[in-house]
Specification:
The protein contains 5 helices and 3 strands, in the order H-H-E-H-H-E-E-H. It is an alpha+beta fold. A 3-stranded antiparallel β-sheet has the order 1-3-2. This is Winged helix-turn-helix transcriptional regulator.
Length: 104
């Protein structure tokens, strides 16, 4: 039996938000950046560059993606930006993942 249009699940704003966050975590360098921020508490971009085999511009782009997804936040500290995890963003991500259907 073919499902009708009415029986198809709608794409919700929560689905879109989870997809954006998951996409941000879809690169191993971004996961490594999150781990470093979790370990260090906060870092400037140069510290992250020192820990990863990536150019400064590449790390900056990864930080932007994580920030846009709400997983990282940055605070201007003179000429530098100090980055840290966004606890509310991570909490939201965990909540969205937890709301996924469990395996049956």
């Amino acid at each position: 039996m073919t499902p009708t249009k009415a029986s198809k699940p709608a794409i919700t704003p929560a689905d879109e938000q989870l997809a954006e966050m998951a996409k941000a975590l879809g690169h191993p360098a971004r996961v490594a950046i999150l781990r470093q921020l979790a370990d260090e508490g906060e870092c400037v971009c140069g510290q992250i560059v020192s820990a990863l085999p990536l150019a400064q511009a590449t790390v900056s782009q990864h930080l932007k993606v994580l920030k846009d997804a709400g997983l990282v936040q940055g605070e201007i500290d003179g000429p530098r930006v100090c980055y840290c995890l966004n606890p509310e963003g991570l909490k939201k991500f965990k909540k969205l993942v937890a709301a996924l259907p469990a395996e049956s």
